[in-house]
Amino acid sequence: MVKNKNIGGRPNRSSTCKTKKAGSQVASSKDLSPLDNPADSDIHAISPELQTTGQGQLGFPDRAYLLASVIFQNNHLEKPPAQRLVNYGKERGLPLPEVKDEELQRTAYELAFNTLKYQELLEDIMIDSCFYLTQPMPDDQMSLVAVTLYDFQDRKFLPREHQGEEEVIQEVRDVENYLLRFKTKLAASLARCRIKHDLLSIEYILPESVKTKQERSSSLPLYAWVNTLKSSLDEVQSVLKNAGFSQVKSIGQLEGPTFCQDLHCGDILVFPAQLKAQLYSTRLLSDHKLIIQDKSCSLGPNAVCSLLPEEGDVLMVGCFSGPTVSHTASLIAEKHKANSNDKPTVYACVSDRTNAQRSELQQAVTAMGCKNVKLIPEDFQSLGCGDKRLQKVRVILLIPKCSVSAVSNPVEFILQENGDTDLLQDLSQGSVAPSKLEALVAQQRKDIDHALKFPKVLAVVYSTCSSYPEENEALVSRALEQAKARAEQEGEPKQANFRLSPCLFSVPDHAEGLEETDPFFMLEPSEQSNGCFLAVLNREPEPVVKEAPHEVLVRANAKGILDRIGSNQLTRKEQYGHTNRMTKTTHARTSQTHLCVSIQSKNQETKGSNSTTLCGHQEFTNRRQSSQGKALRLQASKNTVSSSSSSKPENSTPKKSITPVFNTTTSTATLHPAPPPATPLAPVVRPRRAHLEVLKPVVLVLPPVHFPNFFPPQHSRTRFSPSFNYNKWRTPAQTVQLSRSSGSLSKDAMVKSRPLF
């Protein structure tokens, strides 16, 4: 508990700190306690080390007690009438007195929270000492009696020191005077309770979880992030070293004026808990260059910064403070500082804030130098993907109201992060009521389900400070399943392609037992930090579907983009060209048929006498006979196509293609003659070829064959010489000529019809 002498004073020490100096103060305060009743001599039997830890500061301002009493009245544990020892009245939900001093407000909340923790013990003291039965105190003032009594026993029943300029509240002074008159009996009752329950100190009466958190809170170090809009990490470290601080490697080495860098976030510096006043002397805190904030609040902004693309904004939803918004904005501005034209914007939903709270948030953001923050007063559930402000939002940072069950210092955390103060009573007892937990989970489900509905959002960062699985991994897993089922039901499965990303934060040597493959990032509460949970839900990229060319044309024609290119409806010009192609194809097939019949008749007449003269060897004859039907049809078709292109100017150089007469890819042993069709084939439109490949010339060296009648000796090797000039070949439009004298193929025909491969 933080205590001051005056409203504007700074806190000195926590009431739960166990130091030697505090122990000496306990001993001296015990000796000065006016225990004048001999019946209370059992208090003296308790050694000074077992007394509750006291303070050098004796009391608070009157307004702190009054504010603490209202907080206690609204959050105290209400017992059934049969078990009720002290009646606090029926009024709850009272408005809090206006307090402008943040330090005084924190002090009042700490006092009320400690009173809630020891409510059972304080009621036993009031009943055992007969204070509740003998003093005419109205029920609505018993809350003020409870908080004053806790502070009274915490300072060893010593009278409070008053300041001359202190505001006097008569109601508080009257209760204090009643307790002072009963101080001996109250001290004796406390001693009897401790002996009865065998308590070394009153902390031992608390639940184990509450006691553990209380012990951890006294040793939690200070975490502070560097505001890159005002300074830099190197500059801050230089100022600290000039002020007498020394840098160490780990938190375990923090002792005295030292600091270290955080393991997970490079922009966070860690200090011992007692160095807050010394940090103020460096002016780093007052100049907003260094911002003290819990580590669990800085993990979310760092995750958002690593996920945000260059052209994208951030939407913050839930329970957050001005420092959290400023930290997110500063990280993003530093990352995209080179992009001066269009800097990312941080949108913050503040529908649950009052006008005063919104103004305070805006002032805090402005004081830290953030110019890329905009507040959205609408409720998050009312925002949709059609909102013009959110068209560039790519990452959502969701920090919902949670049970804060993983935080060791809940009062300070709730006040700084705009948390739910209604949880103080549950946290004081070590567990959250099932009804409150269900209400929190229901709201968290609504928020995360709505966040996953934005189609342009690439990632959702979900962060809590809870130790309950219902608020953490169970809720995230359920949200992913619900999003997938909803998308399948609506016929849009691409909207549900979110997946959990592994840990985003680097852990040197796997410190603190974390593994980079874990889908969630969790920190267990310890003496070095509070606990937290963080999950990153990334949207998977949609698979790239490659369309076939005809599918692209069909889709484009359906939209009227390409004017029916590739469609079945032909224009007048296309119909004219189509008719010409059909006529040419018919003529080619007719010529091909007559040519096949002519060649077959000639072959039958000269089969017996000139078979050797026609070919030169038997293999050539077999190949010609087996493929004459099929090969000559292909040759005639090629000639027809070539003749249609012969009308071009002579100076144009058409591409020459060599048409094979024989199928060189098939063995001669498996060739079969292709009989000509009995009737002319119907006109068929030849499909347009997708791609034409120019055949490369191939030189074949055949066995020596003697042609005494056709080839002179000087030309026997010119035909297949490597230096043969292929450009002297005639176009394929020239048909094969037949010799009239011998009834066989002439030498020129043999040369022209011989294939190159």
How is this structure best summarized?
About 40% of the residues lie in helices and about 10% in strands.
Overview of the molecule:
By secondary structure, the chain is an alpha/beta fold. It folds into three domains: 20-205, no CATH class; 312-539, Rossmann fold (3-Layer(aba) Sandwich); 580-645 and 658-753, no CATH class. 39% of the residues lie in helices and 8% in strands. The chain contains 23 helices and 13 strands. The strands form two sheets. Strands 6, 7, 8, 9, 10, 11, 12 and 13 form an eight-stranded mixed sheet that branches. Strands 2-3-4-1-5 form a five-stranded mixed sheet, with helices on one face. The longest helix has 34 residues, at 572-605.
Using brief descriptors, characterize the structure shown:
13 strands, 757 residues, alpha/beta, 23 helices, elongated, five-stranded mixed sheet, Rossmann fold, 8% strand
CATH architecture classification of the largest domain: 3-Layer(aba) Sandwich
State the CATH class of the largest domain. Alpha Beta
Tally of separate helices: 23
Mean pLDDT: 74
In this structure, how is the largest beta sheet organized? 8 strands, mixed
Proportion in helices: 25-40%
What structural class do the secondary elements suggest?
A: alpha/beta
Please state the overall shape, judged from the principal axes of the Cα atoms: elongated
Give unreliable regions as ranges.
Answer: 1-56, 509-516, 588-627, 629-674, 677-683, 714-747, 749-753
How many structural domains?
3
